[in-house]
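Board notes, transcribed. Complex of a protein with zinc ion.
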Amino acid sequence: MSNKFTILGCGSSLGAPWITNNWGKLNKKNKKNVRTRCCAHIQYKNISVLIDTSPDIKEQIKKNNIRNIDSVIYTHEHADQTVGIFELRPFFWKNKKKIPVHGSKRTIKLLKQKYTFCFLPRSGYKPIMSSHIFKEQFKIKKNNKYLKIRAIELQHGMIKANGFIFNKIAYLSDCNKIPNKALKYLKELDYLVIDCLRKNPHPSHFHFDESLKIANIIKAKKTILTNLHVDLDYDKIRKKLPRNIVPAYDGLSFNF
Ligand SMILES: [Zn+2]
C-alpha cells in the first residue's frame, strides 16, 4: 500500500456553503469551493490514522473510501475538529477493539469531559475509545510497523493547539502563531499544510497575508492552504499565489 496523505476537509468551522446556504464570495459553480470541516487522513504502510473528527467525518470517510481507522490524533478540542467522534463506533465493532485516541494532556482531558460516553461506560453503552497523551515525539504502531510523529505546540487564539510533523510533511490546521520552539522543526519539508482562514486578520487563525509570510519562511517544496472561509474563492486565490503554494480542496491528496 502506498503512503498517502488526504485533506478530507478544508473548510472553516461552518464549512462552505453554510447551513443557511451562504456562499460568501465563493463561485457556486466550482466544486472545489464546496468545503467540509477541517480534517485529514494519513495512510502509512498498513496504518490508517485520522487527524481530527470533524462534524462531516462520516461523509468524508465514505467519499474517500477509507475502510478502517487504527488511531485518531487530535489537534485540539474545538467542536469543528471533534464532534464527529461518535461516528467512529462502527470501527470499534469492526475491529473488536477500542480505537486509540491521541492528544495533548489538555485535549485528552477536555475530550473526556465533552464525550465521556466514548471513554467510560455510560447508560449501558460500552466505551469505544482509549485515550493516550502524546509526548513531543510518539509512534502509532500496528503489528511490526510504526509511524513516527512529532507534535508541536501552536498558538490558536486563547488556547494551544497541536500541529503534526511526519515524513517531511507538516499539518498545522489551526494556529495564529508558530512559536520559535516549533519553527525549528519546520525545515526541509516536502509539504506544509497551513491554516489560512480568510482575507482579513482573525484573533485565532492566520489570514491570507500571514499564511504566505509563514510559507515563505518555512519554504516547504509545496504549501497547501487550509481551513478556508467563504471569502476565499479557490480560483481567485489560486491566481494570486506562486506555483508552489496552492489552496486546498476537499479530497486533495498526495503520495509520500
Ligand atoms: Zn479551533
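Residues 4-255 form a domain with the Metallo-beta-lactamase; Chain A fold (CATH 3.60.15.10). The chain has a mean pLDDT of 97.
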